[in-house]
């Protein structure tokens, strides 16, 4: 690929971008994670950069764990990987935690704030703005409350995650930012009901590949 400029995509997300395996408590390998599968399926003309962090929120500082807010990290992250063609932001699952006290609308506001920051950055080609895609994650299953993560997450998480896409779509209407709802195509696992299993990663790959093709190749 000497002399050919690859299209660069940054995937900015939480544990479902990092690849947390709820069955083992470890990380899925590169051949299983949707980011790795996406890189393979897109081929050598693309560079897919994983920027997933377990526990990451959109704008909230977690009182229990430091360094998880996406707001302060986004700008240096994008500039360090520039020039970029596309930034994919898939957050919101951790923002539903009861300790943050956010409504689903508040969570959407935080994600939109991040998306606008990415779109206003100079991390694109020749210092221009990169394309930005906001993806609403799969909804948390109601059964999460009966699992080992139920107490840490708190109440009403599944309801807030289910409502998130509607608010994101409304807030992003008319913005120069792309939006897609993954819950129409992908579901969480049946272990903790808030992470992708191997099949979920495969389905997320198919979903993301279609979004990338539409945005970067116009089809």
UniProtKB/TrEMBL annotation:
SGNH hydrolase-type esterase domain location: 11-203
InterPro entries (UniProt xref): Ester_Hydrolysis_Enzymes, SGNH_hydro, SGNH_hydro_sf
Entry-linked Pfam families: Lipase_GDSL_2 (PF13472)
Protein name per UniProt: SGNH hydrolase-type esterase domain-containing protein
Domain of life: Bacteria
């Amino acid at each position: 690929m000497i002399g050919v400029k690859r299209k660069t995509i940054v995937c900015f997300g939480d544990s479902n971008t990092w690849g947390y395996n709820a069955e083992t408590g470890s990380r899925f390998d590169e051949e299983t994670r949707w980011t790795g599968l996406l890189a393979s399926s897109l081929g050598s003309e693309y560079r897919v950069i994983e920027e997933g962090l377990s526990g990451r929120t959109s704008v909230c500082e977690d009182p229990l764990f430091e360094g998880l807010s996406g707001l302060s990290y986004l700008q240096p992250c994008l500039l360090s990987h520039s020039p970029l063609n596309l930034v994919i932001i898939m957050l919101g699952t951790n923002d539903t935690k009861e300790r943050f006290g956010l409504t689903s609308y508040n969570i959407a506001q935080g994600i939109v704030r991040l998306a606008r920051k990415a779109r206003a950055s100079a991390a694109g080609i020749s210092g221009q703005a990169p394309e930005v895609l906001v993806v609403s994650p799969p909804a948390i299953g109601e059964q999460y409350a009966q699992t080992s993560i139920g107490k840490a997450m708190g109440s009403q998480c599944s309801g807030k995650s289910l409502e998130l896409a509607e608010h994101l779509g409304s807030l992003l209407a008319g913005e120069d930012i792309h939006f897609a709802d993954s819950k129409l195509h992908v579901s969480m696992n049946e272990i903790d009901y808030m992470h992708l299993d191997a099949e979920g990663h495969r389905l997320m790959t198919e979903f993301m590949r279609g979004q990338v093709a539409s945005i970067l190749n116009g089809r």
